[in-house]
Amino acid sequence: MVLKETQETEEIIQRIAALDIGKAELTCCVRVPDDDRPGRRLQEVATYPTMTRSLVGMADHLRTLGVTRVIMEATSVIRRRREAVRDGG
After folding, report:
1. d(CA 17, CA 42)
2. SS3 of residue 79 by DSSP
3. Is 11 inside any structural domain?
4. Tell me, what DSSP letter sits at residue 75?
5. How far apart are CA 15 and CA 82, in angstroms?
6. Would you say residue 70 lies in a domain?
7. Which residues constitute the domain of residue 29?
8. Has residue 1 been placed in a domain?
């Protein structure tokens, strides 16, 4: 197989977070550009309890880092907490 150059104009998300959500905790991986080294990226991985206060703190941290897209895998058990955080409490 040979990779070929394409003319696609796909969007590249510069500031992104990925969440792996479990019942008791979630793991958050954030990737953002390194302002000191153009072309390089910084990565942070942290674990948070799935309690509302912790999730609100994580959301605040993601806003501080300028994250513009969050991707996640979530179960229906956590959906209510996620909606509460999204709706501000």
Report:
1. 12
2. helix
3. no
4. -
5. 20
6. yes
7. 16-86
8. no
The β-bridge relationship of strands 41-49 and 25-33 is: antiparallel
Residue 7 lies in a domain: no
- Terminal Cα distance for the chain, rounded: 51
CATH code at position 25: 3.30.420
Per-residue pLDDT of the chain (89 residues; tens, 9 = 90+): 676 666 666 677 899 999 998 889 999 999 999 999 988 999 999 999 999 999 999 999 999 999 999 998 766 655 666 676 777 65
- Taking Cα atoms as reference points, which of 76, 65, 1 lies closest to residue 28? 65
Residues 6+ apart with CB under 8 A from 34: 40, 41, 42
Angle at CA of residue 40, ends 39 and 45, nearest 5° = 145
Domains in the chain: how many in total? 1
Amino acid found at 24: A
pTM of the model: 0.69
